Amino acid sequence: QAKMQGKNRLEQYDVQWEQSTRALTGKLQAIQQALLNEEFILYYQPKVNMAKGTVLGAEALIRWQKPGGDIVPPGAFLPAIQDHPLEIELGDWVIRTALAQAEAWHEQGLSLEVSVNVTSLQILEDSFISKLQAALDAHPGIAPEVLQIEILESSALHDLDKVSRVMQACRKLGVRFALDDFGTGFSSLSYLKHLPANVLKIDQSFVRNMLDDSDDLSIISGVVGMSQAFGLQVLAEGIETEQHGDLLLRLGCELGQGYGIARPMRAEDLPEWVRHWQASHAWREVKPVDFH
Ligand code: C2E
Ligand code: MG
Ligand code: MG
Ligand code: MG
Q1: SS3 state at 176
Q2: How many other C-beta atoms can be found within 10 angstroms of the C-beta atom of residue 112?
């Protein structure tokens, strides 16, 4: 009897496993087809200097625009292509598209940095540097410094030696690096020494709770201190209100990004947004408040 149950359970497991692999295969195929059909689109979320009232650039965030018009967020399709060659194919597309966009803005008289998110699989692939070089060469209108590559702090730490070698090679090309979701990956000061990053992006979870959680406030304060010690830029993500922005400024973090500043938007909407935001924030003066 017990043996029978065990066998049934095993069979049930097999069926579920089969169904989930088939579903994954279906999704992979759909994503492959979507890439061919050019259904992917990059939205851009502005990155600003809150103290100076200037716009630094924008982060490219991928969306899947279904033929019916539905917009699918990255969290709903990127996991399905993890560790599949499509992860690299889509990643390459993101870099090429973001560079083309930065060049187009530049031609319209807007010099903006553009940030792209990458995975460690993507940047550790053998041909990553040569493809990056080719993509930069294809857009001679912009300097390589315009491109900023965001890698999750946690994945950078996971392959510390390999990732830092690739970062080094990219930096030789002029490309800049940010450690994304910083503060969640247990970076210590010594790890940071080995990663040639330019920017620390404070994870939005700390920013979200900073107004009522003193631990999160301390973490932010600590990351700002780390950035100063290493001569890095620091940028806060997930700024939803002016209160968040003001407190960050008092903590010494001038760079920010979040729904309170702007939601990710279509590329064609960005120039108008930049003009409007810079005009309305021109009055803002640097507030040198010593928080400590
Ligand atoms: P991320 O790089 O940390 O990007 C920030 C995410 O937070 C974005 O979500 C953005 O829309 C959202 N966000 C920005 N400001 C706020 C705010 O004030 N409040 C809240 N609640 N959310 C805010 P999104 O676009 O859904 O992207 C999620 C993640 O997917 C990204 O996190 C990034 O890790 C990944 N991702 C997005 N595009 C790409 C891509 O082209 N390639 C790769 N490899 N990953 C990508
Ligand atoms: Mg990012
Ligand atoms: Mg982030
Ligand atoms: Mg994130």
Answers
A1: strand
A2: 20
Q: What is this model's ipTM? A: 0.98
- Given ligand 1 and candidates 41, 71, 117, which is best to mutate, with the most ligand atoms within 8 Å of its CB? 117
CA 165 remoteness from chain centre? 20
The model's pLDDT over 158-204, given as tens digits with 9 standing for 90+, comes to 889 999 999 999 999 999 999 999 998 877 778 888 899 999 999 99
Q: Please work out whether the CB of residue 245 comes within 6 Å of at least one atom of ligand 1.
A: no
Q: How far apart are CA 233 and CA 227, in angstroms?
A: 6
- Banded pLDDT at 141 (limits 50, 70, 90): very high
For residues 100 and 112, give the distance between their C-alpha atoms in angstroms, rounded to a whole number.
Answer: 12
**Protein residue whose Cα sits closest to atom 9 of ligand 1:** 61
Does the CB atom of residue 123 touch ligand 1 within 6 A?
A: no
| φ, ψ of residue 267 in degrees (nearest 5) | -55, -40
CA distances in angstroms from 83 to 98, 118, 122, 134, 141, listed in the order given: 23, 13, 9, 24, 34
Closest CA to 178 of 199, 208, 206, 207: 199
74 lines ligand 1 (CB under 6 A): yes
Neighbouring residues of the ion ligand 4, judged by CB less than 5 Å: 181
**What is the residue with the minimal CA distance to atom 8 of ligand 1?**
61
